[in-house]
Backbone:
């Protein structure tokens, strides 16, 4: 959100288990409708992932990030 | 005017200050144990005040239901919590719950109160995120009630019969539920012979609690090996008086539990995997034997919230984990 406020197009990625925390931060930051992308299992919430897991996740998330940044706001 | 235990005070604050002065609290304020409240607690549990819940022979202590009720009121319990407090007191005061040693020891052992069965949800006992910590009245006050009984009835007072070198924050209160809904695992009380619909309390005296973190394993064997490494780093000496029935409690966290679920491991599977590895001979000062007499002595409990790749090891003091039904 701070990057957005600084004029940098951004999208946050959070783990599904942390959705509630992310929504709480958005709410207290005055942006209750702030949108973010989520990652779910089998990627564990704390990002100690192997290189292969990182690459697999990047394959999945990159198009979503691109769509979020270039799609209708 | 506030009346409690045959004393009258001009105000609540005066009562609390007098209780501090008399040494009847754990250092935190208490609720006044008025005769009306104590009676309501006893009625809720269906007990007469003189009912004996247990004894500590070495201290010439007999704990009655009235004494337990007074301390449960003081801890901040609601009346409906009291049958669970009674079960916890009965469990701890069983001979092999070993109140005398576990509350007097230099090591500062603490008592974990683990709640199973329908009463968990009826009372709002936390078993998920944050369940070891503050924020949940049932957890906080049920655990505190047992500790106040230990202090005010069983004479476990620091500098007197409590000889802990450091003691531990877990001695204020340590109570949580098993997350029975996390999987189809048999709940702890069912593994110990009670019916699923029977509510129960297990009291486990622990020398220390150790977090077994593992963020990198992605399967059940990997998590189990981490548990073994962490338990063996501490070792469990065993004890002739306790015999083959000794326990260790492993609180399996959400992130580790997932791997057991995915691979269909039951609690019994985990016990069978861990037991020979824990009992293998020591190979170094940091890889010590953990003497547990039987696989079923390894008590597996599901609890905790998502996120941390961690489970907790509640390593025993000189006592058995005792399970009592909540009546």
Residues:
């Amino acid at each position: 959100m701070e990057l957005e406020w600084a004029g940098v197009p951004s999208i946050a990625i959070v783990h599904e288990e942390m959705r509630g925390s992310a929504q709480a931060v958005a709410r207290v930051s005055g942006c209750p409708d702030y949108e973010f992308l989520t990652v779910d299992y089998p990627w564990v919430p704390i990002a100690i992932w192997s290189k292969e897991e990182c690459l697999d996740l990047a394959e999945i998330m990159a198009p979503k990030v691109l769509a979020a940044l270039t799609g209708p706001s | 005017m506030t009346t409690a235990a045959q004393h009258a005070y001009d105000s609540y604050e005066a009562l609390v200050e007098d209780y501090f002065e008399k040494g009847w609290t754990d250092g935190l304020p208490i609720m006044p144990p008025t005769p009306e409240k104590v009676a309501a607690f006893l009625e809720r549990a269906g007990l007469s005040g003189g009912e004996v819940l247990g004894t500590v022979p070495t201290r010439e202590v007999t704990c009655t239901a009235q004494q337990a009720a007074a301390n449960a009121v003081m801890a901040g319990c609601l009346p409906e919590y009291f049958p669970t407090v009674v079960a916890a007191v009965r469990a701890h005061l069983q001979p092999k719950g070993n109140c005398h040693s576990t509350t007097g020891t230099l090591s500062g052992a603490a008592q974990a109160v683990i709640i199973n069965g329908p009463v968990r949800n009826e009372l709002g006992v936390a078993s998920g995120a944050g369940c070891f910590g503050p924020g949940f009245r049932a957890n906080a006050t049920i655990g505190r009630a047992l500790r106040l009984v230990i202090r005010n009835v069983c004479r476990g007072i620091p500098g007197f019969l409590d000889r802990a070198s450091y003691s531990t924050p877990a001695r204020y209160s340590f109570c949580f539920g098993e997350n029975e809904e996390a999987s189809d695992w048999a709940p702890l009380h069912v593994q110990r012979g009670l019916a699923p619909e029977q509510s129960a309390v297990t009291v486990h005296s622990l020398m220390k609690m150790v977090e077994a973190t593992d963020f990198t394993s992605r399967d059940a064997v990997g998590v189990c090996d981490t548990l073994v490494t962490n338990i063996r780093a501490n070792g469990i000496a065993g004890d002739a008086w306790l015999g083959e029935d000794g326990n260790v409690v492993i609180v399996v966290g959400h992130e580790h539990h997932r791997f057991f679920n995915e691979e269909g491991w039951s609690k019994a599977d985990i016990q069978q995997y861990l037991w020979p590895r824990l009992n293998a001979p020591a190979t170094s000062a940091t890889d010590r034997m953990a003497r547990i007499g039987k696989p079923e002595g390894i008590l597996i409990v599901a609890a905790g919230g998502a996120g941390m790749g961690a489970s907790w090891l509640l390593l025993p003091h000189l006592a058995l984990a005792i399970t009592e039904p909540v009546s």
User: Anything to note?
Assistant: The longest strand of chain A covers residues 12-15.
